[in-house]
Amino acid sequence: MAEHEHVRVAVVGSGFGGLGAAVRLRREGITDFVVLERADSVGGTWRDNSYPGCACDVPSHLYSFSFAPNPDWPRTFSGQEHIRAYLERVTDVFRLRPHIRFNSEVKRMTWDAAELRWEIETASGTLTADLVVSATGPLSDPKIPDIPGLDTFPGAVFHSARWDHDYDLRGKRVAMVGTGASAIQIVPAIQPSVSKLVLFQRTPPWVLPRVDRAISDAERRLHRALPLTTRLRRGLLWGIRELQVQAFTKHPGELGFVEQLAKRNMARAIKDPALRAKLTPDYRIGCKRILLSSDYYPALAQPNVDVVAGGLSEIRGSTVIAADGTETEVDAIVFGTGFHVTDMPIAERVVGADGRTLAETWKDGMEALRGASAAGFPNWVTIIGPNTGLGNSSMILMIESQLNYMADYVRQLEVLGGRVALDARPSAVRAWNHRVQERMKRTVWNTGGCNSWYLDANGRNTTIWPGTTGEFRRATRRVDLGEYEVLRPSAGSPSAARVTDEAQEATV
């Protein structure tokens, strides 16, 4: 990285959000940008998560960019290696590699009020940027609980997102901690080869069958010959999920039928009444993410698997101890305990206009205007920001909506002209967040009786969008300058001046 390099836009992260932002910037005619990536390759969470059995629980044709359809998906639900390969192809097809700075983890981003730009310190050097697009994603930094004695465990310890491929689990006694989306894929993948598998389950998930199959050669030939069929397939998948949203957001009682399907799915594989009782959730389906698997329950029914209905509370030597006192000797511990979602580490590294970090600003809960802009952080746009997550559909849909917003943000800066920045008005952020939280009150995520990773330390849902993806697309179609303060350099002053409403209207 060149010393004192300055770019128009700095994108942080090269997963779906970062690569999508890069493509959109090029389509807007902007080539003066860099993508800062902490690893040595693209892919984000689909690079980092390479554990056995890793796959997506959203159908392939919906879990891809609308502007980069893939007619050659091999399965209806694609595995990690296929999704990562897709992102590599997107990088090459849209000629993004010259813009990417690998091994350039962001250490600090500080807003320079005098120059109206961001000063960015990375592992490979420093640079400045007029606009920062933060696309680090909520599923990027693994969370491992603070277990007494963990640092003295003599065996192998790793998180699902940092899988140790050099450690052979075959014939080993393994503790699997957690029962989320990663764990239900890991368990059936490793169960046949380990000598003993102990699953530490704090809360049982609701699990529906994963209706996966190979996509035939004939289907792929059809999609290649007639691209319209790919769009129709994607549209059908999207429409079905849009119709499901009301049950999650307005009428959670309608999900009872889905619960019965999940219970029948369990009963087919789990014949032991005691084990079935352990695995039956006591909260409304949908409150936590509904998981898809056709081999999780069969794996748990095998004789080399024990399910401990309680979290891991202590480790003494090679003995793992559950909350109920159950003790087991193991050779390895695998954590499937999720990520820092409501306390994203990147927030500690972003310093805004008043000298506070984003983490300090968000200490009472994350909030951003239309999921994109935080007050006090001018010319900073986040992809997959607060309350943009989904519980039943594809996050690529939400990413593309936020890319629309980012693109119009750039256009508004062009229209305003000169050295200029936009800072979300605190009143606009509060109003947006109030509307979101009011809608959230009726949703299954807030009323379903569970404690999920959607909720922050204060019990507030700062993660999920309480509506359809179509609604979010309309809400983020363009930037409303009335929701922002326009900042310009102040003559004779080291700080930027905030343009009044009247002056702003005259400028526009």
TrEMBL record:
InterPro entries: FAD-bind_Monooxygenase_sf, FAD/NAD-bd_sf, Flavin_mOase-like. Its cofactor is FAD. SUPFAM superfamilies: FAD/NAD(P)-binding domain. PANTHER family: FAD_NAD(P)-BINDING DOMAIN-CONTAINING PROTEIN-RELATED (PTHR42877:SF4), L-ORNITHINE N(5)-MONOOXYGENASE-RELATED (PTHR42877). This is Baeyer-Villiger monooxygenase. One of its GO terms (molecular function) is N,N-dimethylaniline monooxygenase activity. Pfam families: FMO-like. It comes from Streptomyces spinoverrucosus.
